C-alpha cells in the first residue's frame, strides 16, 4: 500500500509540475502577444520625424502658441527652416499649414515627390484651388487667405523717422556721405517696399478665364457633345432617318512647371519683410507669366497647348470645334474688323468677354481718326469712339468689349514684326492648377556648400484648355502700324 501511495504522490507532483510549466508557457506567450501589440501600436501611432513621410502617422501637433495673425504666413521662414537656418519654434504656423495641406491632398490620393537630400514642404500657392470639401479644409483656406496677405503692409516712414529721433540719430551739417566728415552720425536709410521689376501682364486671368482646382490625381476630363442628332421632315408612313450624336472630352493633365533659385543664407537668416515679399512674389509672378504665355502660344507636350496653336477654320459649322481664323485685309486692323470677327462666332458661344492684343496695337486703334477735309488727313473724329473729345481718355473697350493689353502677345508673327488679336468668350477657357507648390530646399551641392547658399526648388502642376475652341476668333499677322 505504501508503494502505491508513493507512486500516486509522485504522479501528482509530476502533474503539478506540468501544469506549472504550461502556466509559465501561457504567460510567456501572452507576454509575447502584448509586446507585439505594443510594438504595432507604437509603429502605427509614432510621431514622424519632420518632414513627415507618406506612411501612417498621427496629425502634426505643435507646442506653444501659434504666431499672431499679424505675423502672417512666411515663405521665407519656411525656406529658412528647410535650409536648417530657422528654428522649428519660429515656423509653427508654416509647419501646421504644411501638415494640413499634405493630409488633405493625401486623402484625395496625391503623392508628392519623396524628399531627397533636403527638407521639403508644401507651400500654398493659390487659395482658390485648394481643396474645400470638408469644414476643416474650409477653415484652413479661410485662415490662409488672411495669413498670406498679413505681411503685405509696408514700412511707415513717419514711424521710422520717429524711432530714429528717439534713438538720437540726427542729420549733421558736416555731410551725410563721407563717414569721416559727419556721415557716421547719420542713421541708416529707411527700408521701404521693394521696387519690383517691370514685367508683362497676365492675359487669361484678366480676360475672365475659368479657374478650377486640379484634383489630387493630376487629371480631369470635361465630357462634351461634339456632334448633334439630325431632324428630318418625313411623309406619312415613311421611315425616319437615324442619326447618332457624337461625344468627346476636354482632357486636362498636370504639366510640371519648375522654378530653381539660389539664395544667400544671409537673406534667410536676416531677411526682412521686404525680402520675404521679394522671394514669394517673384516666384509666384514668374510661374504665372510662364503658364500664361504657354496658354497663348505653347506647343503642347510637356507644356500647355496654346490657344493659337489649335487647329483652325475660317467658318464655323455644327459638329466642328476648331479655332476660328479671321483674315485682316492688307494686314491692317480696321475698326470694321471688330464687328466682322464677332460675327464669325457661333450663336451659342455667348457674348465675347474680352479682346487680347499688344499695347502698341491698341494705341494705334484707339488713335485712328477719320478724314476731315482731305483724304487720309487723320483730323476727323476718332473711329473707335466717335463721341470722344481731345481731353477724354478712351475706355479700354472695342465695339463694347473690354480690351486686355499685354506684351505677352507676340510681336514676331508673320513677317517677323507682326502681331495677332484674339476675341473670345473666355469663361470657356479652363485653367486647372494645384493650389500648392512643392517646395524643396537643399544646400548639399558643391556650389551651395562652398558659397553658403541654399537652393530652392518649386514645382507647380497646371494645365489648361478650351471647352470649345470655336468660342475664340484669331486674327494673325497684323501690322503694328
Defining key terms:
481 residues; alpha/beta; Major capsid protein gp5 fold; 3 domains; six-stranded mixed beta sheet; 31% helix
In words, what does this structure look like?
- This protein is α/β, with parallel strands linked by helices.
- Helix content is 31%, strand content 20%.
- It has three domains: 1-38; 156-190, no CATH class; 204-479, 2-Layer Sandwich (Major capsid protein gp5 fold).
- Strands 6-7-15-11-8-10-9 form a seven-stranded mixed beta sheet.
Short recap of the structure:
The chain has 481 residues and is α/β, with parallel strands linked by helices.
How are the secondary structure elements laid out?
Blueprint: H1 2-45, H2 75-82, H3 92-107, E1 119-124, H4 135-147, H5 157-166, H6 204-207, E2 210-213, E3 219-227, E4 246-253, E5 255-264, H7 265-270, H8 273-297, E6 312-313, E7 323-326, H9 335-344, E8 354-357, H10 359-366, E9 397-398, E10 401-405, E11 418-424, E12 429-433, E13 436-442, H11 446-450, E14 453-466, E15 472-479
Parallel strand pairs: 2-12, 6-7, 7-15, 8-10
Antiparallel strand pairs: 1-13, 3-4, 5-14, 8-11, 9-10, 11-15, 12-14, 13-14
Unreliable stretches (pLDDT < 50, length at least 5) are 47-62, 65-69, 152-157, 166-179, 181-197
Task: Give the strand order, joined by hyphens, for the main sheet.
Answer: 6-7-15-11-8-10-9
Mean pLDDT: 76
Number of helices: 11
| Overall number of domains | 3
Biggest sheet: strands, sense, closure? 7 strands, mixed
CATH-defined topology of the largest domain: Major capsid protein gp5 fold
Q: Look at the structure and name the CATH superfamily of the largest domain.
A: Major capsid protein gp5
End-to-end C-alpha gap: 133 Å
Beta-strand residue fraction:
15-25%
Q: CATH top level of the largest domain? A: Alpha Beta
Sequence of secondary-structure elements = HHHEHHHEEEEHHEEHEHEEEEEHEE
Structural class by helix and strand composition = alpha/beta
User: Helix share of residues?
Assistant: 25-40%
Q: In angstroms, what is the radius of gyration? A: 34 Å
- The number of strands is 15
The CATH architecture term of the largest domain is 2-Layer Sandwich
- Principal-axis shape: flat
